[in-house]
Amino acid sequence: MSALVIGAGIVGSSVAYHLARRGVPVTLLEQGPAPAAGVTRDSFAWIGDSKADWPGGARDLREYVLADHHRLEAELPHTTLRRTGSLSWTGTPAEDARPGLELGPGQFRIGRSDIAALEPNLRHPPEQAIHTPSDAGVDPIALTRALVAAAVAHGTRVLYNTSVTSLQVTKGRSKGVLTPAGPRTASTVVLTAGIGVSQLCEPLSPHLDVAASPATLARITAPPGLVKAIVARPDFEVREVQEGELLLVVPHVEGSAALARSAQLAFQRLKMAFRGSEQCRLLGYRTGRRPMPAHGPVIGYATRDRSVYVAVMHSAICLAPTVGRLIADELTTDRPAPELKRCRPSVAR
Known about the structure:
By secondary structure, the protein is α/β, with parallel strands linked by helices. The protein has helices at residues 10-21, 58-61, 65-75, 93-97, 112-118, 140-153, 197-201, 256-273, 316-333; strands at residues 3-6, 26-29, 46-47, 86-88, 108-111, 128-132, 136-137, 157-159, 166-170, 173-179, 182-185, 188-191, 210-221, 230-232, 237-242, 245-250, 281-293, 298-301, 308-312.
């Protein structure tokens, strides 16, 4: 077989890497000038059980997430999984301590003194919080670039600034894709282009229900170690993505002026929350349009002739290492991966 992988975000890069390691000739097409040029670069990249939503078939993949991230850390140079753990609380002490609040695997309810020990720069620790020691974070741009570099080392060809205008269809079967520079052919097309998957796939399989959900993320310079863990408060979420740089989730609002105010307000809340934040500087903020399939990840053949394969999901940073491994296994062995059973798209033809 040969494969065209459309989109060099975290999912497409993982698919290309895992296929190339199995000896598959892969061409990776990216409309931007570099890997992770789209929504991947605007991801908070919180890895673990406590943050990600697990709708539909995502729940079946949950148990493999950390192990696959650890595996990639060992396989790829210059990638680091930041094992910081997470601290989260909702608002009032009564809410956080209520008996019915279900804890997930490896989660613990801790008190103020333990919170202060874990997050010593936090000015006003809450009475209680949920601590998940196994939670981690990655630099999504660095990880995606490492995956592409490793895929290239295994023979993958990467074409940047190459947009895909449509699938190349002959007698109801895809033979590849069309680009402004001409057609590109392969036995299998793997669509990983986020919210663009629905439009590309529509001529052959018009049943992909993938919405676009805006999310805004700010980057902030900060004293190294100002924030130790992934901190999820009612008013913001923040973590250190690399030494001296924070990622801050900004409440998204429409309109450039309103969004600028929202980013500034979130930044001021962060500064008020942590001692030593006087040196923090807001570098900027961006909004990404995350793909949000209605019923969880959509992964599998989109056509009965098995010429087009789709992979689109929310929590892509979490799931990409696992999904890339399973897709490569499925495409190279021609055996369905049971872990993906509840992720399958409707097939029109």
